[in-house]
Design brief:
The complex is a heterodimer of chains A (281) and B (365).
Chain A lengths: L1 E3 L4 H13 L5 E3 L7 E2 L2 E4 L2 H8 L3 E4 L6 H10 L4 E4 L6 H13 L3 E3 L5 E4 L4 E4 L8 E8 L2 H13 L4 E6 L10 H10 L5 E7 L4 H12 L5 E6 L23 H10 L3 E3 L4 H10 L1
Parallel strand pairs in A: 1-2, 1-5, 2-4, 5-6, 6-7, 10-11, 10-12, 12-13, 13-14
Antiparallel strand pairs in A: 3-4, 8-9, 8-11
Helix pairs in contact in A: 3-4, 7-8
Chain B lengths: L4 H10 L7 E4 L2 H10 L4 E6 L11 E4 L2 H12 L10 E6 L3 E12 L4 E7 L13 E5 L6 H10 L7 H17 L2 E12 L4 E3 L3 E4 L18 H9 L2 E4 L4 E5 L2 H13 L4 E6 L6 H13 L5 E7 L5 H12 L7 E6 L3 H8 L5 E3 L2 H10 L2
Parallel strand pairs in B: 12-13, 12-14, 14-15, 15-16
Antiparallel strand pairs in B: 1-4, 2-3, 2-4, 5-6, 5-8, 6-7, 8-9, 8-10, 11-13
Helix pairs in contact in B: 2-3, 4-5, 6-8, 8-9, 9-10
Classes of the chains: A alpha/beta (281), B alpha+beta (365).
Chain lengths: 281, 365
């Protein structure tokens, strides 16, 4: 895959860490930096060139928020089919444009404001999550929060529950890949035997997921953890999407909805592996 | 970023949306002066960002000077959702029988902006019946779109053209100023059939503020929020006595939950952000140490990119500077044994798990 803004501070650091993990980072893009290389990976002026020269179909984007729309559009127009946007603070309307463009090109976006995607059994890390927290296994882990994903992955791994895939949906109000899409993937994936969903206050993604679970008759065990039971209202708790307006987006609403759909909901991160063990019998 | 009602109405004026005549007043005398200048009766409306203003008594209709002074004094003394009114908007009352609802808002689930329109306004949008909801294209709407909404609402012929104009202007405002929400609730229908927005609620997408300098410095910032912002921390003041600091918004939020469950009262939510280096933990500790009401500090670090040894060095540096509130910390991740060594011999109470750290800090032991 390619890394956009490879020569920036985080681009450099994570290119190295992704390579260390075993991921095939084939090329980088950074305007004006053509001819340079990072950890032996060649850098090109544009993502179009990087994609053409490397044949990559995926991109991990570290471009700052003001330019993410342009960089993301370049990637999608160059034929990237999986665009992972790590960047935080991307304007909502820019994200919406990227989501529309991806749909029109049959591509997927993960993020923005997310740690990315990791498939431990294939040593593929498209993102910034700490590798030691993850191990191959059969639990699919989907999370809005990055650090909670690491914490819970660590809990799962140390309790013998490796991960088939771990995907960070992101902390923004708009997610390129939704929890419903994640669940549909988990349904079809034979390596996945159970799912852990990590949500938080704000929006209604978890409520929608609960309705989808009930409607689709999802059979594999699901354990959820929702952060923000003690969050104040009307305050953005770090993530742009983590805000309660009136009674809309409370942790209670999400917990009730998921419980009603047959999901076991943990009250603390350490309870997740306990509930998973119960579910798997 | 939420705008005050008076700021939202100023924005409405820029977009040729009608608003009642009003004067903003910073104190009781100014309210009286405003009262004398405007037609009576007037509404005195507390200017706060918190919701629930009406229920909290933040709006009063007055028709004489004594009432104006009395109510102004009362309203300035209110605390609404933890907030004191920064000013009172003195606004001419608008006689009406019918209230409509109209907004342009972000539908997160649909991943689109929508207009929501209804013929019974004045109450919470969630409880409205007979809503007309239409997706708004990112590039805007046209007259045909607006006319269709007016038709679906079955508005009488004298109101429909005004409604169309208002919807077109509101949508343009929402699009150009990158609002997450632009709401008119209620949109009053006057005795003569003239439509008049009586309240205005605007929330700007924070992530878009960098390209809207017109909104810079719109809200007075408290010194701690200002400092946190300069350091790049996500920070929310909460009013309790346990400062909660961590590396990652979800992790900090989860830690707040643990503290709440254990019966503790967080003083703040502080997210150091990714790759929290030594300097950042130092700045965060210095900030929370000065925060009024704080008497204990809880630090929750899950090391990934964040180097636990950097965190340990940062903590011990600040401890070396002088009096610091008692620190309870859970530091987990690569090099945590070295981090532990760095902090042994200091007053920091280290725990292996977050629940252990939380139980200890809440007990104060």
């Amino acid at each position: 895959m390619v890394v956009q803004n490879m020569t920036g501070k985080y681009g450099r650091l994570h290119t190295k860490l992704m390579l260390d993990y075993g991921t095939n980072v084939a090329a980088g893009a950074a305007p004006g930096k053509e001819g340079q290389s990072v950890e032996g990976v060649p850098v090109y002026n544009s993502v179009a060139e990087a994609v053409e020269k490397s044949g990559a179909k995926a991109s991990v984007c570290f471009v700052p928020a003001e330019f993410t729309l342009a960089a993301g559009a370049d990637a999608l127009n160059a034929g990237v089919k999986l665009l992972v946007i790590i960047t935080e603070h991307v304007p909502i309307r820019d994200t919406l444009r990227l989501v529309q463009l991806a749909e029109s090109r049959g591509a997927s976006i993960i993020g923005p404001n997310c740690p990315g995607l990791i498939v431990p059994s294939r040593k593929v890390k498209l993102g910034i999550m700490p590798a030691p927290s993850y191990a191959p296994g059969n639990v699919a882990l989907f999370s809005r929060s990055g650090t909670l994903m690491y914490e819970i992955a660590g809990q799962l791994t140390s309790n013998g529950f490796g991960q088939s895939v771990a995907l960070g949906m992101g902390g923004d109000p708009i997610n390129g890949t939704t929890s419903i899409e994640c669940l549909d993937f988990a349904e079809k994936d034979d390596e996945t035997k159970a799912v852990v969903v990590v949500g938080e206050i704000g929006g209604d993604a978890e409520e929608r997921l609960a309705r989808h679970i009930a409607k689709s008759g999802f059979k594999k065990p699901i354990v959820a953890y929702i952060a923000g039971r003690h969050a104040p209202k009307e305050k953005k708790m770090g993530h742009a999407g983590a805000i309660i307006y009136g009674d809309y987006g409370t942790a209670d609403s999400k917990i009730r909805a998921l419980t009603g759909a047959g999901v076991k909901v943990a009250l603390t991160p350490t309870q997740v592996p306990v509930l998973l063990r119960e579910s798997l019998g | 970023m939420r705008l005050f009602e008076y700021q939202a109405k100023d924005l409405f004026k820029q977009y040729a949306l009608p608003v009642p005549r009003s004067i903003r007043a910073d104190d009781v005398n100014a309210v009286l002066e405003a009262f004398l200048k405007l037609n009576h009766p007037v509404a005195l409306k507390a200017q706060v960002l918190a919701g629930g203003r009406g229920k909290a008594g933040g709006i009063a209709i007055v028709d004489d000077e004594d009432a104006a002074v009395h109510e102004a004094r009362r309203i300035f003394g209110l605390t609404i959702g933890g907030e004191r009114p920064s000013s009172i908007l003195v606004e001419e009352a608008y006689p009406h029988d019918v209230e409509l609802y109209l907004s342009v808002s972000l539908d997160r689930g649909d991943r689109a902006f929508v207009t929501i329109a209804a013929t019974a306004g004045g109450v919470d949008v969630e409880s409205l019946t007979g809503k007309v909801i239409r997706r708004v294209p990112l590039d805007g709407i046209d007259e045909a779109f607006a006319k269709e909404v007016a038709t679906l609402l079955k508005l009488p012929p004298d109101q429909a053209p005004q409604y169309v104009k208002i919807l077109l202007s509101l949508e343009r405002l929402a699009r150009e100023k990158e609002c997450e929400l632009a709401e008119i609730n209620p949109l009053a229908v006057g005795k003569d059939g003239t439509l008049m927005p009586l309240d205005a609620k605007v929330i700007i997408d924070d992530s878009a503020l960098f390209r809207h300098p017109e909104f810079a410095r719109l809200h007075p910032e408290d010194e701690f929020e200002g400092e946190a912002s300069r350091q790049g921390f996500a920070f929310v003041r909460l009013g309790g006595d346990i400062a909660v600091v961590g590396n990652g918004a979800g992790l900090v939020l989860s830690t707040l939950d643990l503290v709440g469950d254990a019966g503790g009262n967080p003083a703040c939510f502080l997210d150091l952000g990714g790759g929290a280096q030594q300097e950042r933990i130092e700045a965060a500790l210095r900030l929370v140490n000065r925060l009024p009401g704080v008497d204990r500090i809880l630090i929750n670090i899950y090391g990934g990119i964040t180097r636990t040894t950097d965190v340990a060095v940062g903590i011990s540096t600040v401890l070396g500077e002088g009096a610091v509130r008692p620190i309870f910390a859970r530091i987990s991740g690569a090099e945590e044994d070295e981090a532990r060594k760095i902090l042994s011999g200091t007053s920091v109470k280290l725990f292996k798990t977050a629940p252990d750290a939380v139980n200890a800090v809440v007990k104060g032991t």
